[in-house]
Amino acid sequence: MNVRPDTPVIRPVTVAVANAKGGVGKTSLVANLSGWMARAGHRVLAIDLDPQGNLAHDLGYLDRTDNGRRLFDVLRGNAEPATVHDVRPGLDVWCGGPHLARSVGALIPSTANPLVSVLSNVADLYDVVFIDCPPSLGPLIDAALLSADQLIVPVRADHASLHGLEMIGERFREVRTLNLDLQLLGVTIFDVSRSATALAVEVARSIQLGFDGANPRILPAIRRSERAAYDMRGSGRLAHEYAAAHPGSSSAANLAADYEALALETLTVLRHDPRFGDRSV
Fold first, then answer.
1. Which one, 45, 128, 132, 231, has least CB within 10 Å?
2. Alpha-carbon torsion 47, 263, 44, 4, what sign?
3. Residues 135-171: pLDDT tens digits?
4. How many angstroms separate the CA atoms of 101 and 47, rounded?
5. Confidence of residue 21 (pLDDT cuts 50, 70, 90)
6. Angle formed by the axes of helices 197-210 and 159-176, to 10°?
7. 91-145 residue pLDDT tens
């Protein structure tokens, strides 16, 4: 694991979205939180650190992605990022994809985290950065956590997801010895079909176990809507865009409302950071 440079650097407020288990909604959360923040008037950068590269599907820029080729070189310290501008007004992306899986063990130099350096170079360009992390522990998640100020962990209603929560909690504790800025923003329960009250109690217990007794913040949950999720990814639409295109669908409206509630609570936390430029109206 690499460390931050001794000299402090100024970078945009950065939020990593991670769980050591796949299929828990990380990419959907990054896409919708990024899109909602940009729609509210903030300048947003989304970084896809996942070799699966699904953020390109969710945000609809498949024809503009390099599948992580340039970001791979950035993480090796050999290049500046290539930005895909305005996938939505005010929302830019650094593309991920299969190139990030190449020689993963050699991606990050042992004495520095290039992602911190390149983020410091864009500190004046963005109010907030969201990082979509891969579904496994390793140097890509380390790079994200070492660069982040806040961590959001999505979970689903299954034991594997809760185990992933505990695993990312262990890595969180390790990284915090190197990145003292890193905080747990909260945990959101993804793809719930009914009241999440009982599950929230179990999630809170897992947070306390995995995050060294941290006081758990349970963020607004995202309800299940399989058809909407399938259509959204297939069309590159975000929840509020899908709801606007389907005005008679209660499930689409509920999904958009859930993402808005999550974004508003996330925004409440971010506004405590003086680096967060509040340009919303």
1. 231
2. negative
3. 888 889 999 999 999 999 998 877 777 777 888 888 9
4. 15
5. confident
6. 30
7. 999 999 999 987 565 555 444 678 888 999 998 999 999 999 998 888 899 999 9
Q: Which two tokens stand for residue 216?
A: 């758990």
Q: Cα–Cα distance between 37 and 280 in angstroms, integer?
A: 9
Q: 135 and 22 in contact (C-beta within 8 Å)? A: yes
**CA neighbours closer than 13 Å in the CB half-sphere of residue 265:** 15
Degrees to nearest 5, angle at CA 139 with 101 and 216:
120
At 67-89, the pLDDT tens digits run 999 999 999 888 889 999 999 99
**Is 18 in contact with 136 (CB distance < 8 Å)?**
no
Distance in angstroms (rounded) separating the CA atoms of residues 274 and 277: 8
